[in-house]
C-alpha cells in the first residue's frame, strides 16, 4: 500500500468559522500548494487556527499534529491573502522548522482571483520575500477564477 503524506493545516483566525472548503477541495484535486504531492496520496491529520494575533496556538498545535504523524505543515492561503497578510507568517515558518524539524509550506488552496486583483493594486506582494511566499499558490487565471 502506498504511503500517505500526512499534513497539518494552520489557518488564520480571522477565518475561524471557515469549514475548510477550499483547502480540502484543493487537497483532493492536488491544486495550489498541494500540487507538489503529484500522485502521492495525502492525509490531513490536523486543521486548526492560529487562535488570533500573534498566533499563540502555533506553539501548541504542531505537537498535536505530530502526534497524528504530521510530516508537513501548511500555513493556509488565508494567511497570505488576508488584509493585511499575516505579519508573522515567516516567524511561524521559522519556528516550526527550527523547533520540530518539519517541512513548512506556504499556502494551501490556489489564490482566488479577487484577492490577486486587490493585492496587485495595493502592491502587497511586491517584495521578493512575498514573491517566494505566493509562488506555491499562484496558478493560472482560470484556476484563480475557479477559487473565487
Ligand atoms: S494575521 Fe497571522 S497571527 Fe493574526 S490571526 Fe491571522 S494567522 Fe493569526
Reported CATH architecture:
3-Layer(aba) Sandwich
How far the N terminus sits from the C terminus, by CA atoms, comes to: 36 Å
Could you state the order of secondary-structure elements as H and E? EHEHEHHEHHH
Widest β-sheet, arrangement of strands: 2-1-3-4
Alpha plus pi helix count: 7
Describe this structure in words.
The protein is 39% helix and 16% strand. Helix 1 (21-29) links the parallel strand 1 and strand 2 (42-49). It has 148 residues and is of the alpha/beta class. The model has no long low-confidence stretch (mean pLDDT 96). Helix 2 crosses helix 4 (89-100). The chain is globular. It has a four-stranded parallel sheet with strand order 2-1-3-4. It has seven helices and four strands. The chain has a single domain, classed as 3-Layer(aba) Sandwich (Rossmann fold), CATH 3.40.50. Bound molecules: iron/sulfur cluster. Residues 12-14, 50, 52-55, 79, 86, 88 line the site of iron/sulfur cluster.
Secondary structure: elements and pairs:
Layout (H helix, E strand, L loop, with lengths): L4 E7 L9 H9 L12 E8 L8 H10 L4 E4 L2 H4 L7 H12 L2 E4 L6 H10 L5 H7 L6 H6 L2
Parallel strand pairs: 1-2, 1-3, 3-4
This protein binds iron/sulfur cluster (SF4).
Task: Describe what is shown at a glance.
By secondary structure, this protein is α/β, with parallel strands linked by helices. About 40% of the residues lie in helices and about 15% in strands. It has one domain: 3-Layer(aba) Sandwich (Rossmann fold), CATH 3.40.50.
Amino acid at each position: 500500500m502506498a504511503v500517505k503524506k500526512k499534513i497539518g493545516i494552520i489557518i488564520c483566525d480571522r477565518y475561524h468559522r471557515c469549514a475548510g472548503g477550499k483547502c480540502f477541495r484543493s487537497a483532493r484535486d492536488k491544486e495550489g500548494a498541494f500540487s507538489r504531492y503529484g500522485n502521492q496520496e495525502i492525509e490531513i491529520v490536523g486543521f486548526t487556527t492560529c487562535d488570533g494575533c500573534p498566533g499563540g496556538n502555533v506553539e501548541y498545535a504542531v505537537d498535536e499534529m505530530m502526534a497524528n504523524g504530521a510530516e508537513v505543515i501548511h500555513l493556509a492561503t488565508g494567511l497570505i491573502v488576508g488584509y493585511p497578510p499575516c505579519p508573522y507568517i515567516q516567524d511561524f515558518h521559522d519556528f516550526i522548522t527550527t523547533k520540530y524539524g518539519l517541512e513548512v509550506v506556504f499556502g494551501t488552496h490556489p489564490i482566488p482571483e479577487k484577492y490577486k486583483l486587490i493585492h496587485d493594486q495595493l502592491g502587497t506582494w511586491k517584495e521578493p520575500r512575498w514573491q517566494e511566499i505566493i509562488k506555491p499558490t499562484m496558478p493560472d487565471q482560470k484556476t484563480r477564477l475557479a477559487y473565487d
